[in-house]
Request: fold
Amino acid sequence: MDVLVVLDEMADEHDIDYVSDRAWEAGFKHGIVVVPIVFTKEEWKKSRNAIFCSHRL
Reply:
């Protein structure tokens, strides 16, 4: 399962690895693979994919 993560500003590689590891651990418990897709707000606004995702948590 892909999970969109939109950040105010880009995190460093260590933070992104941490999020990825926690997502994997959470998914593993339920037998699914969780993959975080990380964008900054600015990157997301410029992305064509933004029009396809309107759900906000």
